[in-house]
Structure formats: C-alpha cells, structure tokens
Amino acid sequence: MGTVNQLNTNTDLTVRVFDNFTQFDANVNANEYNLVTAFFRSITTDEDAVRNLSTSLFEISATTGVLVQTLLDQMKGQSAIQVTGTMAYYLNRIRSQSTLIGVNALVTPNFYTARNVQP
User: Fold this and answer.
1) Over the stretch 93-116, which tens digit does the pLDDT of each residue have?
2) 59 CB contacts (<8 Å, ≥6 apart)?
3) How many CB atoms lie within 10 A of CB 71?
4) What does each C-alpha distance from 107 to 63, 80, 98 come to in angstroms?
5) Would you tell me the crossing angle of helices 68-75 and 80-94 to the nearest 10 degrees?
6) I want to staple 88 with a disulfide (CB 3.0 to 4.6 A). Which of 96, 102, 107, 119 is the partner?
7) Rounded to an integer, what distance in angstroms lies between the CA atom of residue 100 and that of residue 65?
8) Are 63 and 94 in contact (CB under 8 A)?
9) Which residues pair with 20 in a beta bridge?
10) What is the pLDDT of residue 95?
11) CA-CA-CA-CA torsion for 18, 65, 84, 43, nearest 10 degrees?
C-alpha cells in the first residue's frame, strides 16, 4: 500500500517551463524548478514575478549553456536590486539589442527630425 510521501517512479518528475512571448519551451527537473522558485520567493512575494523570473532563468540557462545552479550561486547573497541587474545583464545578452532591459538612457532625436513629427 502506497503512502502520500512515497514517490511514484512511473511518473516523470519534470516541470514544463514555457513563455509564449519569447517562444521558449523546456521540460526541467522538478527539484531544480522548486529550488529556483524558492530563491525568487525569498526576494519577492509576487507570484507572477516569481514565475516569470524562474522561466527567464531557465531560458538563460538553455541559451547560454550555463547550469541553473551556477547562475543561482552567482546571485546568492545579492540584494533584490543586484539580482535585477544580474537578470537584466543575462537577458540583454540573449535577446535582441533593440530591446535592452534596464537601460535608462533617454534617446534625444535630432532637432529637425523631432520638429517634423506630428503629435
């Protein structure tokens, strides 16, 4: 007779991680997923942010070839702002250069060009 705590080895212990916006889809180990979400829950209480950051971290890992555990080790001990900066750095490396995350430089158009733009 099975118990609640006994693992069923006939089922696959993976989690499907996907992002429809960036067309990312992967099956990851459930233990790794729980580790990543627990780390992000220690930083924020917003569950949507936790899921989005977790998906982004697995996307970074898949694209760069760096293990998720290695990425987490780099972020341990950092403040929430530092983790945000680290995530922005990695996401900027794998995404289009026209959509930089965390860049706060205002683009000032040429005076004559701006003058011709109708509101």
Assistant:
1) 887 776 677 766 666 766 666 566
2) 19, 22, 24, 26, 94
3) 19
4) 30, 27, 13
5) 140
6) 102
7) 21
8) yes
9) none
10) 77
11) 70
Token output for 72: 């987490």
Q: Which two tokens stand for residue 111?
A: 């005076």
Contacts of 15 (CB under 8 A, 6+ apart): 27, 28, 29, 30, 33
Secondary structure class of 2 (helix, strand, coil): coil
The gap between the terminal CA atoms of the chain, to the nearest Å, is 72
Q: How many helices (H) and strands (E) does the chain have?
A: 5, 2
Distance CA 34, CA 17 (A): 12
Can you list the positions of beta strands (E) in 8-58?
Answer: 14-19, 24-29
Judge if pTM exceeds 0.70. no
The tokens for 83 are: 């983790």
Q: How many residues does the chain have?
A: 119
Q: Look up residue 80 and give its two tokens.
A: 């929430």
